[in-house]
Design brief:
There is one protein chain. The chain is an alpha/beta fold and about 150 residues long. The protein has 5 helices and 5 strands. It has a 5-stranded parallel β-sheet, sandwiched between helices. Helix 3 packs across helix 5. It starts with 11 loop residues before the first strand and ends with a strand.
Length: about 150
C-alpha cells in the first residue's frame, strides 16, 4: 500500500464511506483532521447494499428499500452530529449497490466534476473482524482497484 501523500495546496476531496459503525465514525473524524488547514471538502457516502439473496424477492426488496431510507436519514443525522462543529465543507449521499464499487464510482464522479487538479482520497474504517481484514474487507477491495489513494482508519 502506498503512503498517503497530499500536497497542501492541491484541492482535496475525501470520499468517506459511512455506515454508522464505530470504525466509520473514526474514519469520518480522521477525514476532518486531514482537511484541517487544506482547501477541500468531504463527500460522505452511505452505500445501501442489498444482499443478493434478498434481491430475488420483490416484496423483500421494497421492505429493504424502506429500511435503507430510514437508515439513510439516521446516518445523515449522525454525520451531521459529528461534523456540525467543524469548518469542513461536506455533503451526504446515498448510493445503492455493492459497497466498494460505489465508493470508487463516487470518487470518480468527484474527480470528473472537480477536474484533474483535484486530489481524491477514499477514506474508510478498518474491518471490525480479523478474518474480514484478509478475505473480503471493503478496504481491501477498494485498494485492489488502485484508482485512488485509500486511507484506512483502524
Amino acid at each position: 500500500m502506498r503512503a498517503l501523500t497530499i500536497e497542501e495546496k492541491v484541492p482535496l476531496v475525501l470520499v468517506v464511506g459511512f455506515d454508522g459503525t464505530e470504525p466509520a465514525q473514526r474514519a469520518l473524524r480522521s477525514a476532518v483532521d486531514l482537511l484541517q488547514q487544506r482547501p477541500g471538502r468531504m463527500e460522505v457516502v452511505f452505500v445501501g447494499h442489498v444482499p443478493r439473496t434478498v434481491a430475488l424477492a420483490a416484496q423483500a426488496i421494497q421492505a429493504v428499500r424502506e429500511g435503507l431510507d430510514t437508515e439513510e436519514r439516521d446516518l445523515a443525522k449522525k454525520a451531521d452530529e459529528i461534523l456540525r462543529d467543524t469548518d469542513v465543507k461536506w455533503r451526504f449521499q446515498r448510493r445503492n449497490g455493492e459497497i466498494a464499487p460505489e465508493l470508487l464510482a463516487a470518487g470518480q464522479e468527484q474527480l470528473d466534476s472537480e477536474g484533474p487538479s483535484t486530489h481524491v482520497v477514499v477514506v474508510v474504517g478498518g474491518s471490525a473482524h480479523k478474518i474480514d481484514r484478509y478475505l473480503n474487507s471493503i478496504p481491501a477491495k477498494v485498494i485492489r482497484h488502485d484508482r485512488f489513494e485509500v486511507f484506512v482508519v483502524p
